[in-house]
Design brief:
Blueprint: H1 5-12, H2 21-26, E1 31-35, E2 38-41, E3 46-49, H3 52-55, H4 64-74, H5 88-100, E4 105-111, H6 114-130, E5 139-143, H7 152-157, H8 161-164, E6 176-177, H9 180-183, H10 190-208, E7 213-218, H11 232-245, E8 248-252, H12 266-269, E9 276-279, E10 291-296, H13 297-300, H14 323-339, H15 341-357, E11 365-371, E12 374-379, H16 390-402, E13 405-406, E14 408-409, E15 413-416, H17 424-449
Parallel strand pairs: 3-13, 5-6, 5-7, 7-8, 8-9
Antiparallel strand pairs: 1-2, 2-3, 4-10, 9-10, 11-12, 12-15, 14-15
Helix pairs in contact: 4-14, 5-14, 10-11, 15-17, 16-17
The protein binds pyridoxal-5'-phosphate.
Pyridoxal-5'-phosphate binds near residues 114, 118 and 150.
C-alpha cells in the first residue's frame, strides 16, 4: 500500500496498539470501509475479516439492524449523565443483559470497553468484601498469558510479561498461576493436566492466606497464548475452590461473550456459574464503544443502603451506560437471541474446525482448539519436538494481509472467530485464504532458510 507523505507524517503523530510504528510504515494498512465480513482499504483492496476486527464485529460490520438502533436513539437522546440520573434505554439494557446472562447474574453496569469492565469488577469485588466483614480480602489470582486490559488494575491481573514490564512496578496483590497449556507437556493426559492446573489456584490461595484473597479472574477461553481451552472439569474445580475459600470467580468474557463459543457466554458453554462476568468487544459488534460488568444480584445487596450508609459502589465513568451504546447493545443481544446465532456458532464452528483440520497435512500444526467459532491453530516446527514455529507465524502475518485476510497471529499460533453471520460458503472462502496464506508463508520461510 502506498501512503502519501502526509499520511506517513500523521502516522508518526499517533500510535498503533502494541505495534512499532516504524515497522508498520514498511507495510501499512489503512482501512477505508467495512461491510459484513469484509474490510476495504484506501486503495479499494478487499480483506476477509476472519476475526471480527479483533473479536469485535460479532454480527459483521455495519449490521443494518444495529445501525438503525443507533440512528433511532441518536434522534432521542445521545447522552445522559450517570451522576445525575440514568436513561430509560440504559435500564432496558440492564434488563436485557441480565436475561441472557447465566444464573443470577442480573446486576449490570455498562461501560465503554473491556478494560473499564475489568477495572470495575476488581473494585467491586474489593469493596464488596470490605463492607461484608472481610476487609482484608484484596488479592486477585489470575493466569500467566492471560490478558485483561490496559489499565493498571487490569494490567496487573494480566500475565503477559513483556507488555507489562515497561510499566512496573504494578499493583501488588496479583499472584499468577500457569495456564494448563503451559503445563501440558508434563502430563500424558490433558484431563489430568487440567486437574493439576486448576488445583494450583487453591495452593496459591492457601499460601497467600484465604483471608487476603478476593477473586480469581480468568478468560474462560484464553486468547493470548493461542486460544487456550481448559476442560469443563477445570472450571468445576475453580468454582469449588472459590466456594470453599469465599473467593469470587470472575470470568473475563470480553472475547468469549455474545455467542462465539456456542452459547451467549462461555460460562454457559462450560456450565459453570461465575460471580461476575466482564464484557466488551462483541457486545456492540464494534458499532460503538461498549462494555459491561455483570454481577450476581446477591452481591449487589451489599451496595444497597440508606443515604449516608456509604455503601454505594464508589466508582463511575462519564460515558458509563451511554444511551447510544446501550441501544446498540440491546440490538446486538436481540439479533443473537432471535436468530439463535449462538446455536449457529456451534454448527458453523464445527464446520470450520473440520476444515482447519485439513491444514494438518502441511505437518506444522500441533493442535486446533477452541469452542464454537472461536478457534486457534498452533504452529510448530516439528511434530515430534513441538517447537513453536514463530518464523512461520511472522511470515503468515504478511502473507495473510497480502492475500486479503485479517486474522490474529501471535507468532506461533493464529486465531479465527468469524462473525456470526458467516455461512458455510463464507467459511469455505475464508479457509481458502487461510490455506493459501499458510502455503505462501511456508514457501517464504523455506526460501529464507535455504
Ligand atoms: C480478554 C480481554 N480482556 C480485556 C480486554 C481489554 O478490553 P479493551 O481493549 O476494550 O479495553 C481485552 C482486549 O483485547 C481482552 O482481549
Amino acid at each position: 500500500m502506498k501512503l502519501s507523505d502526509r499520511q506517513q507524517e500523521l502516522l508518526k503523530r499517533t500510535f498503533l496498539d502494541y505495534r512499532q510504528t516504524m515497522d508498520f510504515l514498511e507495510n501499512p494498512l489503512v482501512f477505508k470501509s467495512a461491510k459484513g465480513l469484509y474490510y476495504f482499504d484506501i486503495e479499494g483492496k478487499k480483506y476477509f475479516d476472519a476475526i471480527g476486527g479483533i473479536f469485535v464485529a460479532s454480527l459483521g460490520h455495519c449490521h443494518p439492524r444495529i445501525i438503525e438502533a443507533l440512528r433511532k436513539q441518536s434522534e432521542i437522546m445521545t447522552f445522559a449523565p450517570p451522576l445525575h440520573g440514568i436513561s430509560d434505554v440504559t435500564l432496558e439494557f440492564v434488563d436485557k443483559l441480565g436475561l441472557v446472562a447465566p444464573g443470577n447474574l442480573k446486576y449490570v453496569k455498562a461501560f465503554s470497553g473491556g478494560s473499564e469492565s475489568v477495572e470495575s469488577a476488581l473494585k467491586f469485588a474489593r469493596q464488596y468484601f470490605k463492607q461484608t466483614g472481610h476487609p482484608g480480602k484484596y488479592k486477585f489470582i489470575s493466569r500467566y498469558m492471560g490478558y485483561h486490559g490496559s489499565t493498571f488494575g487490569a494490567m496487573s491481573a494480566s500475565g503477559t510479561g513483556h507488555r507489562k514490564t515497561k510499566f512496573e512496578p504494578l499493583m501488588t496483590g496479583f499472584p499468577k498461576v500457569p495456564n494448563p497449556n503451559q503445563l501440558r507437556d508434563r502430563f500424558s493426559d490433558w484431563q489430568e493436566c487440567n486437574r493439576f492446573a486448576a488445583k494450583l489456584f487453591e495452593d496459591v490461595i492457601i499460601h497467600e492466606d484465604p483471608d487476603t484473597v478476593a477473586g480469581i479472574i480468568v478468560e474462560p477461553v484464553g486468547n493470548t497464548g493461542g486460544i487456550i481451552t481448559p476442560t469443563q472439569e477445570y472450571y468445576k474445580i475453580l468454582r469449588g475452590i472459590c466456594d470453599k475459600c469465599n473467593v469470587l470467580l470472575i470470568f473475563d468474557e470480553i472475547i468469549t461473550g455474545y455467542g462465539k463459543t456456542g452459547n451467549m457466554f462461555a460460562a454457559q458453554t462450560y456450565d459453570v456459574a461465575p460471580d461476575i462476568i466482564c464484557g466488551g468487544k462483541g457486545l456492540s459488534s464494534g458499532v460503538i464503544p461498549l462494555g459491561a460488568m455483570i454481577a450476581n444480584e446477591d452481591l449487589s445487596k451489599a451496595f444497597l443502603g440508606k443515604l449516608g450508609s456509604n455503601v454505594e459502589f464508589a466508582h463511575g465513568n462519564t460515558y458509563a451506560g451511554n444511551p447510544l451504546a446501550c441501544a446498540v447493545g440491546i440490538a446486538v443481544l436481540n439479533e443473537i437471541t432471535e436468530k439463535q446465532l449462538d446455536k449457529k456458532a456451534q454448527r458453523i464452528g464445527k464446520y470450520l474446525f473440520n476444515k482447519l483440520e485439513g491444514l494438518k497435512k502441511y505437518g506444522v500444526i500441533r493442535e486446533i482448539r477452541g469452542k464454537g467459532i472461536l478457534l486457534g491453530v498452533e504452529l510448530v516446527k516439528d511434530l515430534k519436538t513441538n517447537e513453536p514455529f514463530d518464523e512461520l507465524g511472522k511470515a503468515l502475518k504478511q502473507t495473510a494481509i497480502k492475500n486479503g485476510l485479517i486474522m490474529r497471529i501471535d507468532p506461533s499460533w493464529f486465531a479465527v472467530a468469524p462473525a456470526l453471520i458467516a455461512e458455510e460458503s463464507d467459511i469455505d472462502e475464508m479457509y481458502g485464504l487461510i490455506e493459501k496464506s499458510l502455503k505462501d508463508a511456508l514457501d517464504s520461510v523455506k526460501k529464507v532458510n535455504k
